[in-house]
Structures are given as C-alpha cells and as structure tokens.
Amino acid sequence: MLIEQKRKLATLMSLILLAIATLIFGYQVADAEAAMEIKPSQAPLDLEKLKNPKGVTTADTIDLAKLTVPSLWWAKENSENKLLDNWIAYPATPGEPSRVDLIVNQQIWTLLDYLERYEFVNRVGSDARNYGYNLRVFNYQQEFLGSYTCNFAVEKSACDINMNNQNQLGMPRSS
Q1: Which of these, 83, 101, 127, 172, has the minimum number of CB atoms within 10 Å of its CB?
Q2: pLDDT at position 169
Q3: Residue 108 reports pLDDT greater than 70
Q4: pLDDT of residue 113 exceeding 60
Q5: pLDDT of 26-42, one tens digit each?
C-alpha cells in the first residue's frame, strides 16, 4: 500500500510539473508571438507633409493652447550636433498605429558608429513610446535607417529596435 501511495504521489508531482512547464512555455510562446508581430510601418515617408503639415505634427508645428503630442522638441534640441533635423508625427488611423518619422542629417548620421545610431534610435524611440507612438528614422533621400516599434496591444507593450544593417559594429565605411 505504501508503494501505491508513492506511485500516486510521483504521478501527481509529474502532472504538476508538466502543468507548470506548460504554463511557462505557453507564456513564452505568447510573448514570442507578440514580439514577432512587431513590424515598423510600411507606409512611405511623405516629405511633403513638412511643407503642408495638415493632419500631422512636425518640428515646426506649435500649438499655443496646449502641449503638442508627441513633444520631441527636447530630443531635437539635445540631439548631438543637430542630428535630428525634423519629424512628422502621424495620428493613429484604422489599421495603422500612431507613428513618428524622424528625418536626420545624413552627414552627421554617417559620422556615428552603429552603437551611437542604436543609442539615438533607442533614446528617441523611448520618448515617442511614452506618447504612444512608434518611430521610424529616415534621411532626406527617404532611405530607411532604423525603427523603434512597439505592440501597444499587449499589456507590457513589447518593443523592438530595427536598424538598417549597413555599417554595423564599426566596420570601415566605404567611400
């Protein structure tokens, strides 16, 4: 009888461990699936919005009555060597979350190594995330340079940084 009780207890312990492992693995899969859904917007950069900012916010848009959201002026003023030149903030639309498209000074951008670029995208992307915006980085030639994209639909808003893989890890620049 003691042997039978030990077998039942061992079976029960195995089932409990299996249930715990299933729960942990299930959460990891859910987190991985949420992270896989994080993709930057595929909408093209619309530089014409800088001249005619109807429906968007730019670095030149000022609302005298209230704080303009997202407020990236401080990031612009603090950007190294005037790296951040302008931005276009788009409100959310059906099927497209709110986003900010940064336009950086290409000459300054090329002077930065990969880690400095990553740090810039992470810092300004965190600011944008605090306002509920995703972030993409471009130059005036409309080349994609990086993004900071969050899935705001999940409780802990999982985010991902995507960098254009040119010149990673301080590789020598080609002329």
Answers
A1: 172
A2: 45
A3: yes
A4: yes
A5: 544 445 554 456 788 88
Return d(Cα 47, Cα 173) in angstroms, integer. Answer: 28
Q: Which residue has the tokens 């940064």?
A: 102
Cα dihedral 134/137/141/142 (nearest 10): -20
State what percent of residues in the chain have pLDDT above 90: 30
Task: Name, in order, each residue with C-beta under 8 angstroms of 106's C-beta and a sequence gap of 6 or more.
Answer: 139, 140, 141
